[in-house]
Amino acid sequence: AQTVTQSQPEMSVQEAETVTLSCTYDTSESDYYLFWYKQPPSRQMILVIRQEAYKQQNATENRFSVNFQKAAKSFSLKISDSQLGDAAMYFCAYRREPLQGGSEKLVFGKGTKLTVNP
Amino acid sequence: DAMVIQNPRYQVTQFGKPVTLSCSQTLNHNVMYWYQQKSSQAPKLLFHYYDKDFNNEADTPDNFQSRRPNTSFCFLDIRSPGLGDAAMYLCATSREWADGYTFGSGTRLTVV
Fold first, then answer.
1. Which of A37, A43, B67, B80 could form an S-S bond across to A91 if both were Cys, CB 3.0 to 4.6 Å?
2. Along the 118 residues of chain A, how does pLDDT read in single tens digits?
3. Distance (Å) from the C-alpha of residue A81 to the closest C-alpha of chain B?
4. Is the CB of B100 less than 8 angstroms away from the CB of A50?
């Protein structure tokens, strides 16, 4: 079974600084997707960034970027120029390539709580 | 805007009293999921619908049931809530071939 591990239960960063959240996963599949989701307190979980396993290039979305190391099964999230609004729980998630006409569930890590200090 | 809507946002129910949580979507996504998220834990998948096909996770208690009368709506029924069922319940949708999910805002269930 696929597993996702986030080894940092909590992280903190100073406003405007850069922080990296770690994620490792275990799978025997070759085709899959990786995600980072953000869940602010009492608010909706939203997708931050996604990475297709077949793509070597690391995904980037504005201040958010990933370091995808397929061989090491590592998928870290870097947040640059951290803002107060970045404070949230961040979940790393894995989803294998669905079979045609099918769907596959997201497997989540336990999350990392990010605090942004002014 | 296309979205996933969960009602109510907060639900208080009595121990053992059946409760229903609802989810609706305007995205026309094939797949709808119900996750249970307890405090400081990862969301745990309870079940999902692929169109009308119901898929139950092996470790989902029988106390939890679901209905999907049409593409837009999906319900989570808890037949006899226990104190351990207090949690945030997240509804999510996806297209069959697509990548991430679209989540609703969740329903926080309190059992008294």
1. A37
2. 779 999 999 999 999 999 999 999 999 988 899 999 999 987 789 999 999 999 989 999 999 999 999 999 999 999 999 999 999 999 999 998 776 666 678 899 999 999 999 9
3. 25
4. yes
